[in-house]
Specification:
By secondary structure, the protein is α/β, with parallel strands linked by helices. The protein is built from six helices and 13 strands. The strands form four sheets. A seven-stranded mixed sheet has the order 5-4-1-6-11-8-12, with helices on both faces. Strands 2-3 form a two-stranded antiparallel sheet. It has a two-stranded antiparallel sheet with strand order 7-13. Strand 4, helix 2 and strand 5 form a beta-alpha-beta unit. Helix 3 crosses helix 5. It is globular, with a radius of gyration of 19 Å.
């Protein structure tokens, strides 16, 4: 099985950090984010990786080369312009002929990927999405009312929970047929298209094992959490 890692984004929300480094090459501890991802992939039994690269791609290619130094086989799918998530994935089509894992290159994962793959195959899913149970407190008092406007409850700064997309999927190769070539196309669009065609889209929910590194705030938080984790080893 192969893992496709989407590592071609511009990292606009992380400027100026990403002026000279692509986002997946930003350091987390002593290694780039992308190296952590490749190690996690390998730990879960996947030894073949396709990196979808574009922005400052030479930095990635020079560091990882063919992957031998990291115990994996690395191939590169190259685009010369931003293509959004599913558009990037489409560039890896020639490398994919079987069930594969797809993940975004700006997150850190630490859940059981083997179990996710096993569930995907047992259910004969078209796509299996990893979801994360996200919790947050609303900064306001939430007021419940009846249709006539009568106030019946006051919940002060309640906690709300939702299952959010982490950007890690197990997919069947036929997904490529739903993605247009060489134009920006979002993963949300292709998943909606799959559901509209009555393809089975399943999910597994994790309560831990996900760090998002989408902007400066989450990048700083990820570094703090990583250092705390190192302190517990």
């Amino acid at each position: 099985m192969k893992a496709v890692i989407l590592a071609g984004g511009l990292g606009t929300r992380l400027q100026p950090y990403t002026t000279f480094l692509p986002k997946p090459m930003l350091p987390l501890g002593e290694k780039p984010i992308l190296e952590h991802l490749i190690e996690w992939t390998q730990k879960n039994g996947i030894k073949s990786v396709v990196l979808c690269v574009s922005y400052l791609r030479k930095t990635i290619e020079d560091y990882f080369e063919d992957g031998k130094r990291f115990g994996v086989d690395i191939e590169y799918a190259v685009s010369n312009k931003p293509l959004a998530t599913a558009g990037q994935l489409k560039t890896a089509e020639e490398f994919i002929d079987d069930t594969f894992v797809c993940m975004y290159g700006d997150s850190i994962f630490d859940f059981n990927l083997r179990n996710m793959i096993k569930q995907h195959k047992q259910k004969k899913s078209f796509v299996t999405m990893n979801l994360y149970e996200y919790k947050t407190h609303l900064p306001y008092g939430v007021i419940e009312t009846t249709k006539t406007g009568k106030v019946v409850a006051w919940n002060e700064k309640p906690e709300i929970k939702a299952n959010v997309n982490t950007g890690c999927y197990v997919m069947e190769p036929e997904i490529m047929g739903l993605i247009p070539k060489n134009i920006p196309y979002g993963m949300d669009d292709v998943i909606r298209k799959a559901m509209a065609k009555n393809k089975l889209v399943s999910s597994v929910v994790s309560k831990k094992g996900f760090l998002d590194i989408g902007n400066k705030t989450t990048y700083r938080k990820a570094n703090q959490e990583y250092l705390q984790k190192l302190g517990k080893i």
